[in-house]
Structure formats: C-alpha cells, structure tokens
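Proteins fold reproducibly. Take a tokenised chain:

. . .
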Amino acid sequence: MAFEGLSDKLQATFKKLRGKGKVSEKDIKDAMREVRVALLEADVNFKVAKSFINSVSEKALKAEILESLTPAQQIIKIVRDELTELMGGNDAKLAVSPKLPTVILMAGLNGAGKTTTAAKLAGLLKKQGKRPILAACDTYRPAAVKQLEVVGGQVGVPVYKEDGCKDPVAIAKRAVETCDTSLYDTVIIDTAGRLQIDEDLMTELVNIKEATNPDEVLLVVDAMTGQDSVNIAKGFDEALNITGVILSKLDGDTRGGAALSVKAVTGKPIKFCCIGEKLSDIETFYPDRMASRILGMGDVLTLIDKAQEAFDEKQAAELEQKIRKQNFDLNDFLEQMEQMKNMGSLSSIINMIPGINQKALKGVDLDDRQIDRTAAIIKSMTPAERENPSIINSSRKQRIAKGCGMETSDVNRLLKQFDDMRKMMKQFMGKGGKKKFRFPMM
C-alpha cells in the first residue's frame, strides 16, 4: 500500500499529541522531529523534508494554536494543509487544445510502465467522453507496437501504427495529421523508453515534440524508484520542459517519497497516478485527497467518484425495487460484484474509508480473486437456481462445484453468505419497506 510506512508513523506521532490534551512548545518540537524522520524514511528529498518541517513548525508554534482547546487537531490540520501544498495544492487539469486534436506526448525511462500507462490514460479519457487514439512510436523495443495494440484493444481505443516505418518522428507527425481529418479528438503518443544520458534518444524525443507541438508532455515515473524519480524528472524536464508527471506503480511503493518530492523539486504537477495493475487503475491526482489518505483520514470523495463510475443509476433503481419486494436473487448478487470490481481492488477501496484501522487489517485476506471465484460458482448454476437458490440440494451442489472446479464447501459458503445478506436486507427494509437502500455490496 502506498505511503504505508509514512502513514503509520505520522498517525502514531499525532496519537501522542491527542493524548496530551494541551501541548507545549517542546511537544511540538518532539513531534516535528518524528515527522522529519518519517519523511526521510519515506525517501522524501531531504531539502523538501526540511522545508516542510520548518513551515509546519512555524505555524504550529503560534500562540493561538498552543492555547487552543484542541491543539492536536489544529496541528494535524496544518500538516494536512502543508502536505496538500507540497504535492501541488490543487489538482492539475489536462490541457485541451482549442483546435483539435489535443496532443499528449508520453515520455519516460525503460520499464517505467509507459505503454500500459498510455492505454490507462486513453481509457480514462474515453470514459470522460473523449475520443482518443494511441500512436505507436516505439520503433525500438520488440513487440512494443503489438503490446500497445493489445492494451489499446482492452480499453477500446484504436492504435495508429505504420508497418515497416522505423522513424518515430514521422509516425508521430502523421498520426496527428490523420486526426485532423478523422473522428478522434485526442492523440496520445507512446514513445520508446530512454535514459537521460542517451543523447541520441533524447534528441529524438525533442524532435517528436517539435514535429507534433503537443499540448501536454507527460513524464511517466515509476513511483518505486523513490527519490531517484525526482532526479529523473529533472533530467527530462531540462530537455523537454515537461508539463506534468504520471506516477506509475504507486500501489507498489510503501514509502511514497516520489509523490511528496516531485512537485516541490521540479515545479511540475503530478496529474495522474496508477494504483494497480488493471487498465482501469488510474486516478486523477488530487493533492488534498492524497494528504487525507496519508494521515489515515480516508478519501470519501474518490470513493464516491468510483462508485458513480462503476454503478449504473438505472440498474440501482431497479435493484432497489427488487430489494423492496424481496426479489433479490443470485443474478443481482453477481451483477453487484461485477460493478464492485470496476471500482478497483478491495485494498484500495478500504484505504479510502475513514476510520479504518489499517493495522487491524494486516493478515486479513483481501484477495480480489475471491470475487472471481464467487462469480464462477454462480455462473456454474442454472438460471432457475440463480433465481431461486432454495432449490439447490446436495446433488445440485456437487454438480455446481464440479462445473466451476471448486469444492462443495465453497458452494455452501456462498449460499450461506447470500442467505445472510437477504435476511439483513429484510431487516433493514423493515415492515413498511420504505427505507432507502442502494449498493448493498458496498
């Protein structure tokens, strides 16, 4: 989980402050010393950490804070505000060209996940009503074009390619020119990975930029590289004047130093972050929401955004009527699970819920494959069995288990969970059936 170590240490530090009621100047200095150590251990740039601590200390040591009835809460608010400012303050919007198409140039090191991230971004823009196309301009890596076609196909976005052409500058230029007369409004140019020290490849990237005049130059940075990612961003910025950063593999970085250092050191905002392996696992980077997550306050707004994207309002209304009439069956149960999957991994969803004790969840099985196993059991049933699970006897259970490659005990467990859920819904609705009930899987 991103920021796990930093989050644990900050929460422990502030728990000590809350336990004191009134706090002294010494208490604040001791707390800031612990925060500084936590930031450095999270691989935050040392100059950034020093500046952050100085700013928080200056504001926390004011008389009105020390004499407040809730000084600990006010100090936490100061830390949250400073974390938000450190990561950019407000979310940075993608630039949109007044004359279509909007051109987005993707750059990054080898292995940063640039091609997959390009497809993730294309899929996100498509969900937002855009009409993107991916341009395959990595002519060096074997099967790079094929990879882009595969991931592009998975998100339903076409790929512009030129078989036999090895000139990425020419391909990029023609991709943009093609979109001038086509149905697409956004071109996302996927380029070959490169090192800052490779002058020929960096010059080629500069030439692509000059040939396409992009509205955005987005650098894909592997969050797991930690503080090195800041140096990478500086190197690319000097050559290309990047407009923003996309942090890939943020879910795999327990420290989070990259997210806390990039904006402060380069002056360039983080615009998106990738929080999982699925092509849907990309989010707009909201500094204030990320600060709340780091401090264990959850992220309700992002959770709501994901729910609104994943759940269909018409289906939700129909489902509510079924629940009122107590007609909720395994088909509905399966449909809800599929929509839950669209919200992301179980661990990422839980991290957004305020008040969740992350330490208590350690060791708890949050395997997303459990949803797939449950779906396999339901899909192994006949339509009649899904609509009326009460007819599932011992022989039917054996057939269902054999059909999905699982044990009879797995089928029994699912049926019990479903029965318990229906009982809970019945109690929730009450005798009058007038209470509002939506998204039962959440």
In short: DSSP finds 21 helices and eight strands in the chain. Residues 408-429 form the longest helix (22 residues). The chain has three domains: 4-86, 102-297, 304-429.
